[in-house]
């Protein structure tokens, strides 16, 4: 299986330029406790999910967290 390669992390204030799948940090308070996958549709984030497949499936359901730290894949 091919290992994913990622861009650097971006703050929640900066939104992605491209529509697609992104990895985001999960926070508990101010502490990052793990990672999730979320789909950016160009205007809003979809639900936070454990896998890319789930995130794509739930891409039309808006996440409660619209200001998340994220990074993208360096390939499609």
Which terms would index this structure?
76 residues, mainly beta, 3-stranded antiparallel beta sheet, 29% strand
Strand-helix topology:
Layout lengths: L19 E9 L2 E10 L11 H6 L12 E3 L4
Antiparallel strand pairs: 1-2, 1-3
Structural class by secondary-structure content:
mainly beta
**Shape, per Cα inertia axes:** globular
User: Widest sheet: strand order?
Assistant: 2-1-3
- The SSE order reads EEHE
Mean pLDDT: 87
Number of beta strands: 3
Please give the alpha-carbon distance between the first and last residues: 15 Å
How many H/I helices?
Answer: 1
Helix content: under 10%
User: Measured on Cα atoms, how large is the radius of gyration?
Assistant: 12 Å
- Poorly predicted regions: none
Q: Describe the biggest sheet?
A: 3 strands, antiparallel
The proportion of residues in beta strands is 25-35%
Describe the protein.
- With 76 residues, this protein is mostly beta strands.
- The chain contains one helix and three strands.
- Strands 2-1-3 form a three-stranded antiparallel sheet.
- It is globular and about 30 Å long.
Give a quick precis of the structure.
The protein has 76 residues and is mainly beta. The chain is built from 1 helix and 3 strands, in the order E-E-H-E. It has a 3-stranded antiparallel beta sheet with strand order 2-1-3.
């Amino acid at each position: 299986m091919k290992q994913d390669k990622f861009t650097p992390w971006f703050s929640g204030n900066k939104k992605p330029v491209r529509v697609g799948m992104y990895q985001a940090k999960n926070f508990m308070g101010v502490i990052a406790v793990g990672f999730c996958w979320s789909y950016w549709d160009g205007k809003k984030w979809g639900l936070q999910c454990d896998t890319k497949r789930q995130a794509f499936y739930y891409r039309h359901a808006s996440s409660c967290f619209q200001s998340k730290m994220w990074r993208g894949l360096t390939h499609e």
